[in-house]
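REQUEST
  id: r-88c1
  op: predict_structure
  target: Small multidrug efflux protein
  payload:
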Amino acid sequence: MNPIQELIISFQDLAAQVPEIIRPFIVMLAGAVPFIETEGASMIGILGGLHPIVAGIAAAVGNFLSVVFVVLFTSRARTAVTNHNRGRVAATRSAERVPASLGYQGSAAFEETAPAKPVSKGRQRFMKWLVRFGVPGASILGPLAIPTQFTSVILIASGTSRGWVLLWQGVAIVIWTTVATVSFWAALTFVVGV
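RESPONSE
  id: r-88c1
  status: 200
  body:
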C-alpha cells in the first residue's frame, strides 16, 4: 500500500467516527467556505466515505446557500448605498445654489475622495471576463479566478439583478461541482485504487 492510500484510509477511519447522518452537513459547511467551495468540499466528502453523488449535492447546496446569503446581503447594502448617494446628490445640488459669500463652501464640502486601493489580479481577470462574456460567462469562468461568493458580490455591486446572479451562479456551481466530483472520483478509483 502506498502512502497516499494509507492517508486516505486513515482519513476514512477518522470520518467513520462521525455519525453518517452528520457527514453531509459537514460537507455542506465546507462548501460554504470561500476557497474550499464545492470542489474542495466534494473531495472532502468523497474522501470521508460519502457516495460521490451525495458529496457533490451536499457541497453544491452548501455553496449555493452561502451565495444566496451573500447576494441578498450585498443587494440590500447596494440599495442602501445608492439611496444614500441619491440623497447626497440632491443635497449637493441644493448646496451649489447657496452662495459662497454666506460662509458655505458649496459642493466642496461633499467631495471626499477615498484613497485608491490596488485591484487584485483575480479581480482584474474577473472584470475582463465580465466585460467580454457578460454575467453568464463571468459566473461560469469566475471560479477559476476568485470564489463564487466574491464573484456574486462583484456582480451585484455592478448593478446586476439578484435573480440573474443567482441563476448563473447556480449554473456555475452545478458545472464545477460535477467536474470536480467526477474527476476526483475517477482519480481515486482508477489512479489511486481506493
